Amino acid sequence: MAHSYTPGLKVTAFAVVRRERKLPLAGSVLVNVGDNVAAEAIVARTELPGNVQSVNAANLLGILPEDVQDCLTKSVGSSVAKGEVFAESKSFFGLFRSKAVSPVAGTLESVSSVTGQALLREPPIPVEVDAYVDGTIVEVHPKQGVTVETRGTYIQGIFGIGGETCGELHVAVAAPSDTLTEAMIGEKDRGKILVGGAHVTTKTLLHAIQLGVRAIVIGGFDDHDLREFLGYDLGVAITGSEEKGITLVVTEGFGEIPMAGRTFELLKACEGRKVSVSGATQIRAGVLRPEIICPRLEAELKSSAHDESPGGEGLSVGCQIRIIRQPFFGRLGIVTSLPPEPTALETEAKVRVLEVDFGGGERAFLPRANVERIES
Amino acid sequence: MSERKPEDLKSILATDCGSTTTKAILIEKRGDEYRLIVRGEAPTTVEAPFEDVTRGVLNAIMEVEELAGRKILDGERIITPQEGNAGVDLYISTSSAGGGLQMMVSGVVKSMTGESAQRAALGAGAIVMDVIASNDGRLPHEKIKRIRQLRPDMILLSGGIDGGTTSHVVEMAELLAAADPKARLGAGYELPVIYAGNKDAAPMVEEILGSKTALVITDNLRPVLERENLTPARDKIHDLFMEHVMAHAPGYKKLMTWSPVPIMPTPGAVGLIIETIAREEKINVVGVDIGGATTDVFSVFQTIFNRTVSANLGMSYSVSNVLAEAGLPNILRWVPFEIGEPDLRNRIKNKMIRPTTIPQTMEELVIEQAIAREALRLAFEQHKTLAVGLKGVQQERTISDTFEQTASGESLVRLDHLDLLVGSGGVLSHAPRRAQSALMMLDAFLPEHVTELAVDSIFMMPQLGVLSTVHPTAARQVFEKDCLIRLGSSVAPVGPGKEGQPALKVSLELPGGKREELSIPYGALRLLPLGEGEFAKATLRPEKGFDVGEGKGKERTVNLRGGVVGVIFDCRGRRPFGLPEDRARRIVKLNEWNDALAAYPAVVRS
User: Fold this and answer.
1) Nearest Cβ partner for A2 among B66, B145, B350
2) Rounded Cα distance, B378 and B122, in Å
3) Interface mutation target, options A109, A113, A199, A223, chain B, most CBs of B under 10 Å
4) In sequence order, what are the residues at sequence separation of 6 or more whose Cβ sits closer than 8 angstroms to the Cβ of residue B468?
5) Most A CBs within 10 Å: which of B353, B427, B430, as the mutation test of the A interface?
6) 8 Å CB contact of B353 and A158
7) Is the torsion defined by CA of A6, A237, A240, B171 positive or negative?
8) pLDDT tens-digit profile of A148-205?
9) What is the ipTM of this complex?
């Protein structure tokens, strides 16, 4: 059989997860190899040069650029307060004075004799990187950051928005086919990661933001809601930097789609636990999918599946699949046969297909490209 | 290869690693000529978890083995040369995997050099992920974070006119240095950075970035405020994409060792074939290759070859961007049944997040082909603005028209001078009925007067392009016999008209001496069956106000070439072409046109 595989998303009860945590520029690493860290722990810190503001001193003083240097009341390199005069000109026998004041607190960095611009740099901005997941430091990248390792339940979503966050997980619906509604979210959910079922709307998301919910994990989300929530039509799936006050992880796709049973059960098993969530998605080469990581001990799990391998070795008879395109979108089934010869679809296209058993005697032939293996 | 003469080659295996699918074809010498034997495909495996392009190549070859009923692989090695019935004599490959070129550009003033840099990158076929500028309102650390987060393939740094400010450009370079950005594909290699800003700042930029990035310095893309000079930067972008990005895509190093012939970028290989057709037949050609992430448009007009890559228009990874750019009403206008807007939006987004799926139902196929029409139309619009005469390279503009991007050079692309339109890429090559491809191309490109239409039968122009560099005879034989499928000709009178009124009369001399008279009203499509290799002498008599190439209302006699679809008389109007505004009437018209070409089974209307 040809390996016409479709790798599925990773949904696993137990996996070893490593995450690199690096500073945007060189700084100090605050932890050592072997340290146990909490997700919120700062593992590296640096100071970024402050923002630069420019002031056209020559214009303000009504003088030539080359004369600005002579009118400075503060020397280059000295600190200035917000609103403080740093240059002053006198004219008409000293009767009229023009002044240049600093718009920010910081340092007078330079004055150009060509343009007459004075550059004022704000104080350095501290930048910190947290551990993102509860885990152990397994590698230190000098001056850059660390690699954190954790073990536990690992679930990839198909699409997300918003950055990294962490909090206590709470399954807010009774069944994976339920819609997450405003009524299900209350003050008790502040700071939590909520798991919904099949659907959530922008209105509910906004309600959740108001109540301080950190993230929502949901089966399906509508594109018109996405557009309303983001304020624009998302063209290319590169997300993660949205600052909407909440992280959203969609596990199945766009529309109202019940969350896959296994995903829902695994999340339910994490009820009350601290989880780390990221919505960052990049559907291109070097693909990045949103994720939920729930650190837990291997011993807690009855049947621990050590899953570091990518899986998806191929579709075979008996393996569980999820249908990822109409007309059976979102449904689950078992592969019952893999005929090698191309078969005509309703579209009249001849492609390689597989036969799926949906249970209850319902069977169908589907293009192999339209299914994904559910990894276990 | 070295010991073997091209004519000794009994079998050739060629792959094309697309962004979504890896296609393999097996060519064998049968008697005196080379012919395509089978084709196999598998999902491309540049992405995690595999991150090795060779996995997809091996999978596609395994499918070829299975379909051809012979062994080509020995484990994970291609058996070369052919031993008995096993292996092949030559293996070659092209590639466009990696999801296109993703760039970040930077300028000093966002609306000036920032925009110029953006235009340079777009013109080179990149997706511009972000424009970083001194005045973009973000704090330096926010910019740094953004640069690191986006993981571009390449950065174009510009800013300042020659002799102007250096400090801001230097500051942008410092930000980049501070970000120390990681390249998207593969770790451990330096990110290509092109500097095309104020020449006075070049030494300082070199000092800051030279040791941290693969820095290339080229001419300022905005040497003076009134003039852009984008070509040097664009050329450098193309060079670096091949040298750095593609070479570092996962698994490519291994793939390169499998073939004695350098791996050619897919668009380059397709371009070679298009150029060859134009040169050998002395005609004006437009070729289009619509892929998952990108749509490439090639044209040869007046022997001048042009190529553009619309990196954000495609049928899988970029499908959602087609929706964003074209707008939902433009996609819906091609759908001949009622469909709810939310439903359509969700379907498009689901294709984006699961890019390798294919339409299973007729409804899904029609929607996908509606999206393809808009992707093709937008890519062609982009091509027309970039394929301009020399004047267009240096656009004279004043501050007042800085914000309006209009090409000063006239476009070389003239639809009324177009002789042959060739379509390639999954949605065109794999359309279940060839008439669907013909109609998609007519709707998207709106060819005028008399134009021949063709498609790449099973999307193998890329492989044949690279093959032509080492074995031109085999490439030509397979191209003529197995690759190019001539769909037929289209005759489209240009001019406005009223629905149902006479537009074109045609007197035909068909093969075998049969004569036929046709009268086609405005707003209609009419198909004349005329097979491959057949020609019909046609005297075209346009009504007053319509032009078929000789002027308004003037008669023209032409030899129309047939094909697998036939000759299509397209009297739906050009300049302007329009669809009925009223939804119900539009659906009726679309179905009427689909029926005229028997493009879909009747099930679409249910």
Assistant:
1) B66
2) 13
3) A223
4) B272, B273, B276, B475, B476
5) B353
6) yes
7) positive
8) 999 999 999 999 999 999 999 999 999 999 999 999 999 999 999 999 999 999 999 9
9) 0.82
Runs of H (alpha helix) within A213-283: 223-230, 261-268
pTM over 0.95? The answer is: no
| Spatial CB neighbours of B121, under 8 Å, sequence gap ≥ 6 | B103, B105, B128, B156, B233, B237
Angstrom distance (rounded) from CA B335 to CA B379: 20
Per DSSP bridges, beta strands A247-254 and A215-221 are parallel
- B323, A49: Cβ pair inside 8 Å? no
Q: Which residues on chain A are in Cβ contact (under 8 Å) with B140?
A: 48-52
Asked if A351 and A343 count as a contact pair (C-beta separation under 8 A), the reply is yes
CB B404 within 8 A of CB B355: no
List the single best residue of A112, A242, A326, A355 to mutate versus B (max B Cβ within 10 A). Answer: A326
- Label each residue of A20-78 as H, E or C: EEECCCCCEECCCCCCEECCCCEEEEEEECCCEEEEEHHHHHCCCHHHHHHHECCCCCC
Tens-digit pLDDT profile for residues A293-304:
999 876 665 544
Q: How far apart, in whole angstroms, are the C-alpha atoms of residue B178 and residue B187?
A: 18
In the structure encoding, which two tokens stand for residue A305, read together?
């599946």
> Predicted confidence band at A2 (pLDDT cuts at 50, 70, 90)?
very low
Distant-in-sequence, close-in-space partners of B606: CB < 8 Å, separation ≥ 6:
none
Q: Whose CA is closest to A253, among A263, A245, A243?
A: A263
To which residue do tokens 């994904």 refer? A372
Considering CB atoms only, which of B43, B51, B312 is closest to A235? B312
Tokens linked to A8: 């599925």
Report which secondary-structure segment, H or E, holds B63. helix B53-68
How far is the C-alpha of A152 from the C-alpha of A275, rounded, in Å?
10
